[in-house]
Design a protein that fits this description.
Blueprint: H1 8-36, E1 41-42, E2 47-48, H2 52-63, H3 69-86, H4 91-115, H5 125-155, H6 159-190, H7 199-215, H8 231-262, H9 275-314
Antiparallel strand pairs: 1-2
Length: about 325
Amino acid sequence: MSIQTTPLQPLQRSEGQRRFAIIFGIILIYVAAASSSRMLVQLPQNIAGIWPPSGLALASLLLIDQRGRPTLLAGIFTAVFFTNLITGMALVPSLGFAFANTAESALASSLLIRYVGLPITLGSIREVIGLLGWAVIGTNALTGLIGAGVATYAFAIPFWPTWFNWVAADGLGMLLVGGAILSWSTDIRKRTFAILGREIEFGLLCLISLTIGISTFSTLPTAINYPYLLIPPVIWAATRFGVHGTTLIGLMMTTVVLWITVMGQGFFSSPMEPLSTHLLAAQTFFAVLITSGLLLAASQHERVVAPDQSGADEY
């Protein structure tokens, strides 16, 4: 008995191959991001100042189709597990951290899909609050218990400070890296970019933001040696470049300042307190700052879109 090949079968194979190639590419980027993020890792807790892979994983799960999500989650687990093993971590904590990170991505994406809906571009206050409540705070607070438990078991360190740092690091990764990918994905597909026509202004904004961040390495005059210097660039980005600019500028400044904080320098460092306290202070500051910027950008976007939608409804 012969089986005839229908035109649908080659199409299904091509879609499957394309999906696999996308997932494989995401996993490679995930491994690269995890490896580079080791520069921000605080020992002995093995907790980073910011964990970009958490944002990459969340955004990828929200952007890929439903059939690809189980395979992507399996890839994330494998990537975390082998990355930890390669860097010299023991088997049990490697498995524990892999489970915590994978559960975090799966739960956060499921809650956002169910209660916020797709697509998510952070172009509305509802979407920003949903990302903050369901993923950055809610999911991380829960799965951070697993991660902190693994760290406490493996490295004999205090549980609650480790939990706080875990929630803050993964939350910043979701807020900044995840937010950047989600906000830019629509523009990339439509080939419309928020900075077009304002490239010089955006370049100047990036230069000023980097200068402020790097300047914390040196001893600034007492009158200006305060974190409020980091606020104007975020307001500038939110009002002129929307969510796109806010996430990119926020990611740039956050990475630089947190790295400087881990090195024992900058606004948030003090010789009288442990490094974990400094890092948590910096993480909390940036979480509040970037959230405020995203809400400002989203509210401005809603005001621009609302008249267009009401005009379209009239027709």
